[in-house]
Amino acid sequence: MTRIIIIAILMLSMAVLLTAQNDGLSREELQHRREQLNAQAEQIRRATRFQGRFFKNPEWNRIDTFEGRFLDITFPAMEDTLGIERTFDEIVDRIIPFFPVNREDLERVNLNIRKHRTGFNYVQTANGYEIEGASRLRISYSYIDNRVIIVNSLTYLDPSVLPTEPRITREE
User: Fold this and answer.
1) N or C: which end of the chain has fewer CB within 10 A?
2) Can you point out the beta strands (E) in the chain?
């Protein structure tokens, strides 16, 4: 019985130690990142005419999601898939300067059309290859409430660590 109690106490103390570990960011650093993200959100609002909410992640130092509408963008009818493609591409062109990726490193991969919602996924690539894991920009539009949802999981890639091999195209 004493062994079980000792093991339980050891496990509890290990759990406390693991959960009490600092994630490496001080309160001041988190506050500084929040202020930077708030400033970036305001800059996006002004530059893109976006009206809505931003969901920020100071631990990852990025805006994860925006939800709202662009005041000067009108979505075409759901049947007009080419118009929808152009509209989503216009949104990407507006917001991409605020993300750590070049426009040519995003590839539109699929159009999702549901009953009252349409959307595209843009995959981040490096040297022509898709990046494993998240590294996507998901944009959807709801026809019911005239709302765009943008989910950002793009990754900053330091150009100095990327191989300098030539870019391979799908045709090759």
Assistant:
1) N
2) 50-57, 62-70, 106-113, 117-126, 129-130, 136-142, 147-152
Q: Which letter does DSSP use for residue 34 in this model?
A: H
Do residues 147 and 69 touch, judged by C-beta distance below 8 A? yes
On whether the CB atoms of residues 56 and 41 are closer than 8 A, the answer is yes
pTM value surpassing 0.85: no
Length of the chain: 172
SS3 89: helix
Contacts of residue 113, defined as CB under 8 A and 6 or more positions apart, other chains included, come to 78, 81
Residue 108 CA to residue 137 CA, distance in Å, equals 9
Token duo for residue 25: 């960011």
> Which residue reads 């007009």 in tokens?
80
Strand partners, 86: none
Task: Tell me if 115 sits within 8 A of 142, measured CB to CB.
Answer: no
Q: Which amino acid is at 118?
A: T
Determine contact, residues 80/99, Cβ cutoff 8 Å.
Answer: no
Taking only the tens place, the pLDDT of each residue in 70-83 is: 999 999 998 898 99
